[in-house]
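CHAIN AND CONFORMATION:
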Amino acid sequence: MRVTFRQYSGQADYALVDRFLIEQYQPNNADGNWLEPAWEYMHGHPYLDKTALGKIGIWEEAGQVVAVAHYESRLGEAFFQFRQGYQHLRETLLDYAETHLYGVSEKDGRHFLQAYVNDNDPPFQALVQARGYVKDPDGARPLAQMIIPQSFPAIQLPEGYRLKSMADDFSWDKIHRVLWRGFDHPGEPPESELEERKTMQNTPNFQHHLKIMVEAPNGDYAAFCGMWYQPQKGFAYVEPVATDPHYRRMGLGRAAVLEGIRRCAELGAKTAYVGSDQAFYLSFGFKVLFTSDGWFKTLEGWR
């Protein structure tokens, strides 16, 4: 059989790639691919450029997906997923990314690409370096893992604060505000983006009871943790986490994350992942497995 190529086409291909990522997952994310919940989170993110989804590339053999090249939010970034035994397609996928997933500089109109390559994949690192890519010191995307303890630690909150989830009564306005402020955007969140924010729940496996808020005594949402559970492989995925600057250094973000992990453990999760190496996560048991480095190149030949 030979490998064939086609471009992404709608919901059927979303589900096809979703299943591919689940099938290829190996414990400790040893496969090196995206975790399946990250693919789902991408498609529910309010900042996703949906107009370019058709540029995602899919390679197949004998009716099976063997590789995928895609962006996450906007063109100009490229991520690569492989079925085991098909890593020899690295150059093919990079070629495709350079010709279809490139971004255009607002400054000078030149084409560019930031290709993300795992630091435990030396052949792919050698390939991008040979092509003239330079590692972006600010482009690192670590993946950390926590083995969920059988005896889960007690979750403590300051007096008057309480944990709740989106399965309880909740306010989209307050979720929008804590996520906006929690990611250090200035001022109050724009009302024009509220409807886009609500799209985060429009994905197949969104579970409201795993989206945790810490409610302050005055009713504010002081912290938020989005948690995802992957039942076929028994792991949890943390994304996103935000604490309002007014409520930081009170242990509220930690409480929200731990409550989400605890709920996933009740469903059967044995391990949890987060895309971060922040001391915040390392302090309660996460350990970095590998880092996906961003390699940048100006594609002058494609100007």
